[in-house]
Amino acid sequence: MRTHVVIIGSGPSGLLLGQLLTRAGIDNIVLDRVSKDYILGRVRAGVLEEGTVGLLREAGAAERMDREGLPHGGFSLAFDGRDHRIDLLGLTGHQVMVYGQTEVTADLMEGREAGGGQTIYEAGNVTPYDFDTASPYVTYDKDGTTHRIDCDFIAGCDGYHGVSRRSVPQQALTTFERVYPFGWLGILADVPPVSHELIYANHPRGFALCSMRSQTRSRYYIQCPVDEKVEDWSDDRFYDELRRRLPAEHAESMVTGPSFEKSIAPLRSFVAEPMRFGSLFLVGDAAHIVPPTGAKGLNLAASDVHYLFEGLREHYAEKSDAGLDAYSDRALKRVWRAVRFSWSMTMMMHRFPDAGAFGQKIQEAELDYLVTSRAASTALAENYIGLPY
Ligand code: RFL
Ligand code: PHB
Questions:
Q1: Which residues line ligand 1 (CB under 6 A)?
Q2: How far is the CA of 365 from the centre of ligand 1 (A)?
Q3: pTM of the predicted model, to two decimals?
Q4: What would the pLDDT profile of 235-272 be if each residue is shown by its tens digit?
Q5: Could you give the CA distance from residue 39 to residue 73 in angstroms, rounded to a whole number?
Q6: Cα 303 from Cα 363, distance rounded (Å)
Q7: Which domains does the chain have, with CATH numbers?
């Protein structure tokens, strides 16, 4: 088999890149280790920046999002027993779209199927070869046979645990990492959200986040120790803990109901540099991870896709490699800004076991400054809605 671009990974970054390339007439094949149903069963991000929304429209995968997505012009920071609203729209003129990653992925898959794009699910042992040459190829196992796809470029869209980054010689990579001493325990339940906007709460018992997927589906998170066991958390225990961490008006009005997803995500910051190795490009979580506090992971994957797509389009349409040559630097510049923002939101909103009395006072002063200074609120809002591409 031969194609222009082999895309390893059928998550949001791989699928978005695939749709943009297909619409630009650039052939591509997507390979994923797991099944379509498995991918659609993962519950992850919920907040899309306008840039991500624009790319989904460009990819022809925005019809349902435009119908069902919830534009949010603000969110709350809750501390000291009350809400402090950050007016995204008033401070920046922009808003975000609340629409689940699961839905984004389903819409992109549907678009790909409708356009006849090829995706090979349950592809075992996917391996990129010869990407230090202009004739790379990828092999994979399926139905007892090893297959080979020759291509011009390989896009490593296979997430943090994927094969792409692991295939790069270790001496060619520089990595940066911070692991946080807690995780997020999250649930999904068909109950109306406690508030019409997101609430990020800092409480002496730990962080809590009230998010949503629709007007009838809520996504709630609480900070927990990393070694906590999901089985130890009944729905009642979860809701009791969540209520304790919210201002009284929300705790009292919260509607509870059985969860149908419950999981613990560890929090880390990670960046691998550079993001290009010859004809192999790392995209999204394959190159970087941010803690979810800033809602940036999926949005960074989308901005990487934008830079890579522009580079590939120029390569094929204009016979120029300037965009591909600039890919790693352009993507990393935006990545580091989002890594910084996600780190600062994480530091400001969580309780750290080793913060000490001084650290705690500094955190309180930071929150107080943030919500009383228009300049500080604007800086937060500008980062939250997404820095320009
Ligand atoms: P993905 O989604 O991990 O997809 C990678 C795909 O590659 C496949 N794969 C392989 N395929 C072939 N061969 C191999 N060897 C392979 N190894 C892996 C996998 O099966 C998978 O299908 O990466 P991608 O596309 O880069 O997308 C990144 C996003 O998923 C991620 O950044 C976000 O979910 C992060 N995130 C959030 N981001 C936001 O922008 N806003 C949010 O509100 C937000 N909330 C979150 C989040 C992540 C969370 N968790 C669970 C970590 C909330 C949570 C709780
Ligand atoms: C979510 O809805 O899953 C979500 C929202 C905002 C975040 C993180 C996760 O910062």
A1: 8-14, 31-34, 39, 44-47, 101, 126, 157-159, 161-163, 184, 186, 265, 284-285, 292, 295-299, 301
A2: 34
A3: 0.97
A4: 999 999 999 999 999 999 999 999 999 999 999 999 99
A5: 30
A6: 31
A7: 5-69+99-176+268-346 (3.50.50.60), 180-266+358-385 (3.30.9.10)
